[in-house]
Design goal:
Elements (H helix, E strand, L loop, with lengths): L5 E6 L5 H13 L7 H6 L7 H9 L3 E6 H7 L9 E6 L2 E6 L1 H5 L4 H11 L8 E2 L10
Parallel strand pairs: 1-2, 2-5
Antiparallel strand pairs: 1-3, 3-4
Length: 138
């Protein structure tokens, strides 16, 4: 891993095909009760929003994405409510955007501003791993 800052985005949703299909259904039929504000802001029904992908690519950070179950397996001691965004310092997560601050974002530009202010600066050369990549697979 490089010496650059690392960001870890953790969705309040579990991994796997069944869970993905259930999430799509939940977003379609009951979006007001959907439990992952990060997913709701950054993804449409079927894929990551292009505006989000471009934003993440512009961050001067190594960005990784995990689902709730993957995060719990890697960091069982971490009890921060999800969704959340963490910086990784010495391999340990430190929350920079918590569930309440993410939920307060009314749209994608508000989330982007939150992340700019709290988590990482914009710059060149960021590596983005699209979709929901696991740290275990990198």
């Amino acid at each position: 891993m490089s010496g650059r800052r690392s960001l870890l985005f953790v969705y309040n949703a579990d991994s796997g095909m069944f869970n993905t299909l259930a999430d799509i259904g939940h977003k379609l039929f009951s979006p007001q009760t959907y439990e992952c504000a990060l997913c709701a802001l950054t993804h449409g029904y079927f894929r990551e929003r292009t505006q989000w992908r471009d934003f993440v690519a512009s961050l001067d950070c190594d960005c990784r994405f995990l689902h709730r179950d993957q995060f719990a397996a890697l960091y069982p001691q971490e009890s921060t409510p999800l969704p959340a965004v963490f910086t990784l310092n010495g391999g340990l997560p430190t929350c920079c955007a918590d569930a309440d601050s993410i939920a307060a974002c009314t749209d994608l530009p508000a989330l982007q501003q939150l992340l700019r202010e709290r988590c990482c600066r914009l710059g060149e050369g960021a590596r983005h791993r699209p979709g929901h990549d696991s740290l275990a697979s990198t």
